[in-house]
Amino acid sequence: MPAIECRSLTKYYGDVRGIEDVSFTVEDGEVFGFLGPNGAGKTTAIRTLLGFLSPTSGGAALLGHDATDPGESRAARERIGYLPGDPGLDEDRTAEAFLDHQAALRGSGSREALVARFGLDESRRIGDLSRGNRQKVALVAAFMHDPDLLLLDEPTSGLDPLLQEEFAALVRERVVDGASVLLSSHVLGEVAALCDRVGVLREGRLAAVESVEDLRSRGGKQVRVRVAEDVSRGAFEVRGAMNLRVGDTVSFTWTGGYDALIDLLDGFTVHDLEIVDAPLEEAFMTFYDGDVPGPGRRDDARGARGTEASAPASGTGTDPEKTDADGGDR
Ligand SMILES: Nc1ncnc2c1ncn2[C@@H]1O[C@H](COP(=O)(O)OP(=O)(O)OP(=O)(O)O)[C@@H](O)[C@H]1O
To answer: Which stretches of sequence are listed as region Disordered (predicted)?
Structure first.
């Protein structure tokens, strides 16, 4: 049974598109990344999957439970760890009181170990904590009941590099223990380091689902070559060569195969040759060429469920699971 099965999931806020026709599967034990710029629909997708927002159409199952059925969704959430993008924690409560509340809902087998691992001072009022320390509170809450499925929305925002490493190690450990993970991020490096596959969200739609390995190979190779001969630019202006620079050395991004590259260099006396993976950013940008992602509107808003248009994207108040769709924790 897949950890997440998402079938043509669509969510409009009134006439504003959140996500449209999003389908993907997160296999058991997989780390799946949602990648996309601000407003691409990552948070909307996660909150609709969790049952905090009612889908406009489509469906989903989490750990075999129907995400659109309130009772089933609640049952699934007992085995899910959710880290909201904006935890909206009650500033007046201490971290301890907040975690006690969360523990009563779902359990807290790993709480002590996580608090120690992230160096969290539970006695402090949440309102007095730095952004990074609030994120630690939310992280402990998401992981402490040893969930089978983790839904993590921009999990490392606010964490310093050391804590980001600690977080990555924690995710890897949980996956070894059998958990599945859906993680959203606009930080490519984070997704590349942690995920098996990545779904690229663009203007509410899933533009592609690829393995991180394929995404890397799509980015091509960066080639730098120094040859004995005088080089004319035209010699390298061939299909497959991009970002060409000709000087003492010739450098370009190569998106073709190795044989074609060898053919290209044939006839030159090569003094020096360096071939490295192109940065992942280049592959990522191919999904966004020429377009600035922004909010979409649908032509016909009549079918939309109208009550959520003014709701915030993330939970508000004391409980990260508090729904912004239907006015109560389902
Ligand atoms: N409560 C809401 N009411 C109206 N529109 C909303 C609401 N929440 C999100 N949207 C819109 O839905 C679209 C997707 O937003 P969403 O927050 O899901 O994107 P995101 O990829 O998570 O962005 P970010 O990285 O900034 O959190 C955006 O156009 C956004 O303006």
So the answer is: 288-330
